Amino acid sequence: MDNGKPQAPQHFLSSAQRRVVGFALSFAAGLGIVVLLVATVFTLGKLAAFFSGVLWPLALAAVLALIMRPVVEFVEQQFSLKRLTAVCAFYALFVCALGGLLVLLLPPLVDQLLHFVAYVPTLWEAVSSYFQAAFPDWIALVKRQLENPTVASIATSLGGEFEGLLSHALPSLRAAGAGALGVFGTVAQLALVPIYLFFFLLSRGTPTRHLPEHLGFMKTSLRQDVVFLVNEFIAIVVAFFRGQLLIALLMGVMLATGFSLVGLRFGLVIGLSLGLLNIVPYLGTIIGLCITVPLAFFQPEGGWQLVGLVLLVYVIVQNIEGWFLTPKIMGDRTGLHPVVVIVSIFFWGTAFGGVLGMLFAIPLTAFFVTLWRLIRHKYFAAITKSPELKNETSTGETLGD
């Protein structure tokens, strides 16, 4: 009977059923977003791997230009030079410094490198002989198990997986094995870096100064967010590579000095190489332990004492890097946990097909963390605080009751 009071609308589903349906739809939407993101990353990774020959020189030149731009601007302002003259003067100074460094370090580095390559078969033979003499039962067990067809097939498949991992993680090795054509292509790509760098350094202003003009189809707030995110990504890349290059150089010098002082063979070339590999966090340390510990134990004058001294060098250098260099140079620019750093290196290395993804793993992860924080604080918070949403929620709860 109608007594003049508004009647509450009748719902097809109860309150509990609506919550279940809402959760299911939200879960499906979230799953669809995750699938879309994975498909996007996979597609971008395939494109990056396919066009790596084009992207490598551009990415390297762009990062170097962002790092070296303050030096060029300082030379330009300090000596009242034109931009072109300042860039040419910077190139001349850089070539002279690099040439002097090569004159001092290149002969001993090449000498140690050639001797190390020639020593690798001897080292492998020493390792094999030691394990056969020290652990004969284990060697016999492994040989017996490898005669089993099932175990042999598993070992073969694991070997194939390892080769595939190496081909993805180190595409340069695969390219280097392609013969003279691959070497020529690599040299040609490296020769393009100074050319790209020259033109990048000639440009003035911030790289995103013209970006808002190309985003006129977006709303003002969205356009501002896009420009902010691009600027934030550039700032992260500059801070990371500028700091990480300096840290890697200092670590290389410390490792080379420490290895040479304790008597490790080829300590100069190994230490400097491991320092450069530390541009990718933890990569130089992991590879270095796998190389230097066996070398220290099996070299003619080596043994457990030399292994202990080599490990002491690692401990000292890592403590200097962790307690002094990184806080002073990098600070908390990325704000990423070490576990997140390791996972991101493997993730982006797999997604982008090797070293290119590993190099940009930290900046990309830090960028997506910044993106998530922006979305959460600006958009999700706005939806949560929306008065319409609160009214709908309170009305739904009243009708449900």
Could you give the distance between the termini? 21 Å
Helices, by number, come to: 15
- Given helix and strand content, the structural type is mainly alpha
Oligomerization state: single chain
Task: State the order of secondary-structure elements, H for helix, E for strand.
Answer: HHHHHHHHHHHHHHH
Q: Average pLDDT across residues?
A: 74
Rg over CA atoms:
29 Å
Beta fraction: under 5%
Sheet with most strands: none
Summarize the structure.
With 401 residues, this protein is mostly helical.
Descriptive notes:
The chain is mainly α and 401 residues long. It contains 15 helices and no strands. It has helices at 15-50, 52-78, 83-134, 136-146, 149-169, 171-176, 180-202, 220-262, 267-277, 283-298, 304-330, 338-351, 355-359, 361-384, 387-400. Helix 3 packs across helix 9 and helix 8 runs antiparallel to helix 9 (267-277). The chain is flat and about 80 Å long.
Question: Which characteristics define this entry?
Answer:
401 residues; mainly alpha; 15 helices; disordered C terminus
